[in-house]
Amino acid sequence: MTFFTFIKIKCDIFHKNMNERFKLAIKNSDLSTKEVAESVGLKANTLRKALLRNSINEGYLILIEQNCGISKNWLKNGIKPIFVESKENQIKKILEQNTLEALDNFDKEKIIAYILLKESEFLKIPAFQSLIDKMKVSNKISDVVNRK
């Protein structure tokens, strides 16, 4: 990388003002300025003016990050990533991973016994019902192939 390329990258990322960074985030999301403003209790025009002056309150930046997923670090300092994953999604991923690890440690027969006890509840879950349907189709195909 040449010195001039480095300077251009620095100018593109770090020297944009807050308003330009916000516009870039909006352009790369399915949000509008009005939606972001309303999610933090502001009017769109008030948010625009604060962004133009680079004077948006830290509390609003935190709310924008929490409610809309636009990184406060991006808006304030131009440091990527532009978007952050919501706390809800982070927690969900951790729980899913821990649940899978825990299930791997259980006796498979106990898991099957539990599913059979709670069959009516599991059948209400579309993904589980889809799995059952696929297994039935697979068994029918096996029967045809094996001429049973």
Number of domains: 2
Percent of residues in helices:
over 70%
DSSP strand count: 0
How many helices does DSSP assign? 10
Shape: elongated
CATH homology superfamily of the largest domain = lambda repressor-like DNA-binding domains
The low-confidence parts are none
Please give the CATH architecture of the largest domain: Orthogonal Bundle
Class of secondary structure makeup? mainly alpha
The CATH topology of the largest domain turns out to be 434 Repressor (Amino-terminal Domain)
User: Over all CA atoms, what is the radius of gyration?
Assistant: 25 Å
Quick tags:
148 residues; mainly alpha; 434 Repressor (Amino-terminal Domain); elongated
What does it look like?
This protein has two domains: 3-77, lambda repressor-like DNA-binding domains (434 Repressor (Amino-terminal Domain)); 118-148. It has helices spanning 3-14, 18-27, 33-39, 44-52, 58-68, 72-77, 87-105, 108-117, 119-122, 126-145. The chain is elongated, with a radius of gyration of 25 Å. The mean pLDDT is 84. The protein is mainly α and 148 residues long. The chain has ten helices and no strands. α3 (33-39) packs across α4 (44-52). The relative contact order is 0.07. The longest helix has 20 residues, at 126-145.
Helix and strand arrangement:
Blueprint: H1 3-14, H2 18-27, H3 33-39, H4 44-52, H5 58-68, H6 72-77, H7 87-105, H8 108-117, H9 119-122, H10 126-145
